[in-house]
User: Fold this.
Amino acid sequence: MQGKVESAHSHPTLAAILSFLLVFILLMVIAVINAPTMGGPKGLASAATYLAEVKHTALPFLGVVTVGAIALGLVVARTVYREWPNKRKRTTLLAAYGFLAPYLIITLVFTVGVILFAFYISFTNYDIFTPPQWVGLTNYLNAFKGFVDSTQKDFIQSLYNVLWYSLIVIPLQTSIAILLAVMVNAPVRMKQFFRTIFYAPSVTSSVVITLIFMWFYLKTGYINFFLAKFLGIFGITWQNIIWQGDPRGLIQLIVNAFGGNIPSDQWYLRGPSIAWMSIMFQNIFTTAPTFMIMFLAAMQDINPTLYEAAAIDGASNWQRFWKITLPLLRPIILMVIVLGTIGTLQVFDQVYLATSGGPLGTSLTPVYLTFREAMGQQGPIRMGYAAALAFILAVIIFFFTFLQRRMIERGTEQY
Amino acid sequence: MSAIPQKLDRPNPAVKTVKPLQYYIGVTLRYVLLCAVGLILFAPFILAFLGAFKTDAEIIAYPPKFLPVHWLWQNWVTTWNTDIGRGGTFPRWLFNTAFLSVTVAILEAIFCSMAAYAFARMKFPGRDLVFNFMLATMMIPGAVTLIPSYVLMSKLKLINSFFSLIIPGAVSAGGIFMLTQFFKSIPQELEEAAFMDGASHMQIYKDIVLPLSRPALLTILILQFQGMWNNFLAPLLYLNSADKMVLNVALSIFQQTYKAQWNLTLVGAMFNAFPVLIIFFIFSRYYIEGVSYTGVKG
Amino acid sequence: MKSKSLTVFSIFVVLATLLAACATATAVPTTAPTEAPVAATEAPTSAPAAQSTCPLPVEKGASIVFSGWGDTSEQKIYTDSIARFKAVCPDVTVDYQPIPDKFQDKMKAMMAGGTAPDVFYVDDQLMTAFASSGQLLALDDYMKQAGVSTSDFIPSLMSEFTLDGKTYGLPKDWGTLGLVYLPDAFTQAGIAEPTENWTWDDMRTAAQKIAATGKYGGFCMAADWARFAPFVLSNGGNFATADGKTATLNTPEVETMAQLVADMFKEKSLVRPSDLGASWCGEAIGKQLVGMTLEGGWMVNTMKQTYPDVTWKTVEVPQGPTARADIIFTNAIGVNASTKYPIASAALAIFITGKDNQAAIVQTGFAYSTHPDQYSMITNEYDQAIAKGGLLPDSVPAYWGPYTGKLEDVVSKALDRVFLGDQTVAQSFDQAQSEAQAALNGQ
Assistant:
């Protein structure tokens, strides 16, 4: 008996030590592979040169990761030590991490390491082919310099653009999604068919959709054509405009119609440009159907007796919609809004493909700016600055995601 | 005689109600509206399809016509026969894209369901931590990790290998999230019974949970297939040689080869979109239900 | 669901030419020259094999990779060039791997990952990215060995690819702008056609008269730094100092010419392509919407392929108040500093840009040779007229250091604001000056 207990007890220490080593070594290997050193062929010529480079420039990085790895390793070891003696818990622990292993390993190697690298780089000036130089918070501060120095306003302008984007797109795509859902939810035959057709724009790649819309938005394209025809019915002549090249802002157009003008150095008063709004419209096309599906699913969860009771009480369709459907959809609406916001903060493809930041910077987005700086398209490669922009954006996105989870949790309580 | 009818949704067959004209108008209007909106939403594909048959001049003529004057099937043949040398042909790219998409879809179904099973069914220390960590990784914009990822791939000697897309693509946080929600919604009695009979987690996972999850797994398969089919930048950077490229990248080759002849570009776009659209139409039910799982049953 | 980072990046490539210009008012043709004019016009057969021997004593069994952009016709040019190279340097195997699109992005990624080709096109973007960090091989020693000197090339082309006195790229071709016009517009307006002695004022007068006929626009110009550059250069100005450190946008030389352009726009003798419904001025000429514009050698092929029935002519770029000068677009061939076969790679670079190969290329009508004495080999008379601008002593290449892209963007935006009536010339170029200076300071 004594022997059995002892042998059962001796294993935890061993297991703990082994797990510590496993975690530690894994993390350190990932750190070394992802170390922020001078890249390019000189650094990567062979394993020896690479490791020499790592020793040369990446020791602080490795130092930080070592601390983290040790900490994590200790936590893991302690947990293993605690759980090991209990056979059931041990099995569960091993099984759980066994099931998680593929995900964890792949993510650690390909995502976490790269993110750690990028985070470290955001505090440096780095153009890949020379060793990174530490600059502290400079990159982060520079991002916001646009508030005081109007020659540096790119990042601020990109935030301004996505703000307008959210303000216009989110209400529109949410309400259109609800409308579509209501339409498809109606008791008609071939509901399935219509649901499928409505969802089709969301299925193909954004590349294909953007391409087709670029063709539509040509001066000789269908959109100008339809507008000319449609307004022609009312006797209004429509001047074909180059949609994706027109920098005039919404508010500016309104002011112009009244004979005024907004000077160029007060660009922030001008509102979203026509080019930017053309991208908004194109995106609503593809995102509204996705949200429609979510609303549909939620609508189908609503207890039909509620509607029947209302019908008996003499409520019209309209009243039933307003007083029953919408309030019950509130949590979904909130979720769609926050999901939508997160999406709007990451608009990239269309800008890259169609406008490259747009006429006079009116379609710049934070992600596009990050890409442009990281690839050095208008100057040297500035990976550090790009990384800083990406992390600022990540914080903003994280904030909204946090909101989302709070909303959902509160929303489900309502049920 | 109760004042409240017992069955509300079944009209008394003894009473014949003549539906007012309003009803029929309402139904017709609804159909008309549905058709109109459907037409608008599907218009891009219809117009692009028609455009793929037009001549160079027609495609940018103003005012634009809907139907091509002649149905130029040659456009489709020309595009299919594109050959840029060293094995770069259209059927090859189609195969590459399909191969990658199917492989990634299957691997995702396996690995994501494994991880989701752990999150949904097992209580283990660190579960919430790892779950939240997984959600957090969804939020880093990819722009900044682009070149570092390329550098990492080259250190691992994976450039110009399909593995550079398959391995990272074998798991995704979104897939795990969706499957976790789904597994949580499956009643646990069967599993508990099996557990008490001494089945291991692996057995429960394989023999009980997986079969019950067919719709969700099918959804994952479809969504990940679509995701990899529509992927552009990663294949652009990682798959360099002509015989390894994927369709999206090849579209850009059309662009340069045929110097922005819109009609041929639209053919390429159609070749790109068709497989995904067809799969979507066949499996639309699972597709749509799957999307709803991501958010609604939160 | 695929992680956001991958789906966010299903990007599509820009329509490199005409239709990209539809989207943005900036000129397609500014990118067109860096991606080189297209398709052979006359004498499509490749030139007789070079009689020279291999430029350098190459390594035995060298196997190198060569990469560039371009469509099928450009790829043919270089396939032929490589065949000629193989004839004189049979020991070298060259694997030609063109990257038709997103060339710069791919090159940077490949270089970062250590998988870049041995020999490749170098433009100003890649020069910035690679030269100062030592990713390009300095070619001077190899050039000396091969008997090639920097003075063999047109001087203004070399400066872009020289850093700290070392040569990192050999210019492979170049393009420039000339005055392209429709004779019919001049007949309609009852005025004489442009001559080689024209000044900008002559151009303006003619544009006014042509516009007055109502059948043609006067002079077509987009809000584009490249089209504005000849104006500025001919007035003794420039966008920045030669060392690329100080912006000079609010100097009187620049602002006078900007005012000229603004005045022309106001009096409607100058129109933008978008005002005419065209995506670039070349299209406006082809569709016979405007009388004149500034365009480059690519017009030869564009007009021949897309608007074959339109009669058009060119003359050299007009004279300005102090000089006659033009802007030059050029690209080079560079060598990867980490190549395993530096001698073979340098040999390829030297051969492709050498006299014999350049002569062969010029005869296909594809591009202009980078050797000054080969100007006479340009077969097309329109090309000749346009190309004269590049040989002028005051012509400069479109390169102002590592921040060239940003500088160009700033100038285009300044013009945009002027055309939109947002600001006066002085205001717009003052703003541009501070933006440009900030850019050149590396902020």
About this structure: The two ends of chain A are 54 Å apart (CA to CA). Chain A touches chain C through 59 residues (CB under 8 Å). The first strand of chain A starts at residue 124 and ends at 125.
